[in-house]
Amino acid sequence: MATAASDLRPLPSSLMGGRTQSTADEITVLGLAARGFRLFPVEKRGKRALIKKWTERATCDAESLRAWMQAHPGCNWGVACGIDSRVFVLDIDGTEGQAAIRALSERHGHDWMKTLRVKTSRGAHLYFCYPDGPTIRNSTSKLAPGLDIRGTGGYAVVPPSVHSSGHRYDWENENVPIARAPEWLLELVRARAQTSATLAARVGAGLIAEGQRNATLLSDAGAMRRRGMTPKAIEAALLAENAGRCQPPLPESEVREIVRSVSRYAPAPEPTNDEHETAALLEDVRSFIQRFLVVSVAQAVTLCLFVLYTYSSEQFECAPYLQITSAEKRSGKTRLLELLELLVRRPWMTARTSAAALVRKLAASHPTLLLDESDAAFSGDKEYSEALRGVLNAGHRKGGRASLCVGRGCDIKVVDFDVFGPKVIAGIGRLPDTVADRAIPVQFLRKRPGETVERFRPRLVAQDATDLRDRLTGWATEDRLEILRRSFPELPEALSDRQQDVAEPLLAVADLAGTEWASRARKALIELFGSRAAADESLGAKLLSDIREAFNGRDRLGSNELVTLLVEMEGSPWPECNKGRELTANTLARLLRRFDIAPRTIRGETDTFKGYLRAFFEDA
After folding, report:
1. Rg of the chain over CA atoms, in angstroms?
2. Is residue 547 domain-resident?
3. Are residues 424 and 344 in the same domain?
4. In angstroms, rounded to a whole number, what is the distance separating the alpha carbons of residues 418 and 275?
5. Among 322, 321, 377, which residue's Cα sits nearest to residue 354?
6. Per-residue pLDDT for 432 more than 90?
7. In 3-state terms, what secondary structure has residue 446?
8. Same domain for 125 and 213?
9. Is 473 part of any domain?
């Protein structure tokens, strides 16, 4: 593929197909295809592929692209990265990504960034020629916080696409050729997962004060070497850490001396894992759960992986939650918690506790929280519900803390408690959005006629559960935990960034069980996350349709008036869409936020009010 960015815009006349008035977007897309980019359609103002098997079907063929344009008018476009398109992409995301780039540039200068570049809503995409040699794979914030790699099996959204925020993807420097990636960058990208993990943990982390710099860098370098990093990769990571964290930075000569010192030692032996043992254990856990519960294949796979994950949760930066929901009682939610109580590591099953006890218990023993009746907890005592929400929000990330006042009388101080760890939350209806966003949705239905399971009698299954739990404990060997510490599994592009974070620990566990379980896990998580996305999409489409009906030719409506019209619609979900209560103006504003629509101050003929113009909804 030609690498001159200036060649990306002009469209050869052979691609015009006799058309005289092609749109600018069509010209851009066909121009990219003419230069060798393999493209496919992506959802409008989104990042989800609109075709199945896009890795195989992405194409440079103009007629195929035109057919997709007609089938998906106004869609976004993705370029398949990897060896076939001969490009990989460095995605700079947000302030963290910008900080990481500054740290790398302080060490390596700015010339390496002189390549084809796309401006995105939160940063930029840097395109590099795909090199010969080992495969470049996808990663999310593993090179450094806010720096993602799109390689083989991944894709990047390209101009003329539009972000969900309304920001348009644009070329920043169309006349700059696609550059070859510098060797130091390839070394970091291709290094084992621990290379990325170390840099990700260090760049952008807390500052290192004078007097602690040598000891800290020596400790980090030793950890990198033990995990098999090459001296060149250690040097690149350590220099970036020195520039980004040390106050003031050490001379580069001292950093290189640290690298030379640790490089004299051989890496630690490679840890081992018996895939067949892990796969057999997962199968036995699944059989145990399905003896007493009717669950789908995707739910069973996810539950098994979650059980194993709890025995290795400290190895990961993110703690996935399970959101066990149903629309009605007696659907099996509590039964699942009872089964998990027999299987997971350090279970703590509770339906109600005080805010202080919740925080202290999580910090003291780091249990797997099995919380029942979450709907009652979030709709009950305000102090407890807010404390629970804060714990669940903070406990999703390693280092997450909840604060309590500790002491008596005048001797009171604020103490931070570590609340990181796996959690299962069961209840009727939806969780608060910030909590649901951190959870894998598992929705239960009542058993249908003809669906039978074994009656659950704890005394009769206690020995089976004990045997399984002993095997689960024995499974978590130091070798397997070390493999998981180093592991950064391939993440499905069909998932959002947050969903990928949640899925990553379970996928790492699945990969230890071999290719069959690895494939099952990815399909299961895409299905479970997709069910929630589909439900959300369906509710959003219903809302927009009903709002269109409510306007009924009018050009403006007040927020309260619009809510009243929606609630009064026969057969609509709006009388009970707000956790069983009717829609409010605030809830409406929150639901419309995903469409970039917000209430405005509107001046009427006789008064001024908060509301919406019909024009707000035209694009949506």
Report:
1. 27
2. no
3. yes
4. 33
5. 377
6. no
7. coil
8. no
9. yes
Cis geometry, peptide bond prior to residue 267 (ω within 30 degrees of 0)? no
Please indicate, yes or no, whether residues 450 and 583 belong to a single structural domain of this protein. Answer: no
Whole-number Cα distances in Å, 431 to 263, 283, 524: 50, 30, 21
Q: 């001797």: which residue's tokens? A: 411
Give the pLDDT confidence of 115-163 residue by residue, as tens digits: 999 999 889 999 999 988 777 878 776 677 788 888 888 899 998 898 8
User: Side-chain half-sphere of 595: how many Cα atoms within 13 Å?
Assistant: 19
In DSSP notation, 402-430 reads EEEEEEETTEEEEEEEE--S-EEEEEESP
C-alpha distances in Å from residue 173, one per residue of 5, 114, 119, 177, 373: 8, 9, 9, 9, 55
Q: Which residue has the higher pLDDT, 298 or 209?
A: 298
pTM, whole model, 2 decimals? 0.56
**Cβ atoms 403, 395 nearer than 8 A:** no
CA dist 208 and 199 (Å) reads 15
Which pLDDT band, with edges at 50, 70 and 90, does 397 fall under? confident
Backbone angles phi, psi at 26, to 5 degrees: -65, -40
C-alpha distances in Å from residue 331, one per residue of 65, 295, 307, 427? 46, 11, 21, 10
Determine what percent of the chain is predicted with pLDDT higher than 90: 26
pLDDT in tens, 18-65: 443 346 788 888 888 887 889 999 988 888 888 888 888 899 999 999
Q: How many residues in the chain?
A: 620
C-alpha torsion angle, residues 51, 130, 90, 486 (rounded to 10): 90
HSE-up of 295 (CA within 13 Å, CB side)?
27
Mark whether 342 and 251 lie in a shared domain: no
Residue 612 phi, psi dihedral angles, 5° rounding: -135, 145
**Cβ neighbours for 572, distance < 8 A, ≥ 6 positions apart:** 542, 546, 566
Domain co-membership, 304 together with 446: yes
What total number of domains does the chain contain? 4
Q: How far apart are CA 158 and CA 28, in angstroms?
A: 10
> Which amino acid, 524?
A
Q: Whole domain around residue 220: which residue ranges?
A: 195-263
Buried/exposed 164-191: b ≥16 CB within 10 Å, e otherwise: eeeeebebeeeebbbbebbebbbbbbbb
Tokens of residue 11, six digits: 């469209």
531 — pLDDT class (breaks 50, 70, 90) = low
Tell whether 251 and 386 lie within a shared domain: no
Do 103 and 239 sit in the same domain of this protein? no
Residue 293 lies in a domain: yes
Cα–Cα distances (Å) from 12 to 66, 107, 188, 258, in that order, read 15, 42, 38, 55
Residues 6+ apart with CB under 8 A from 296: none
Q: 79 has which bridge partners?
A: 39, 156
Q: Give the integer Cα–Cα distance in Å for 162 and 167.
A: 6
Asked if the structure places residue 543 within a domain, the reply is no
CA count, 13 A, side-chain hemisphere, 188: 26
The candidate with the shortest Cα–Cα distance to 321, out of 435, 439, 400, is 439
* Token couple for 95: 């302030």
- The alpha carbon of residue 201 and the mean position of all alpha carbons in its chain are separated, in whole angstroms, by 17
Helix (H, G, I), strand (E, B), or coil: what is residue 169?
A: coil
d(CA 5, CA 179): 10
Strands 608-613 and 76-80: unpaired
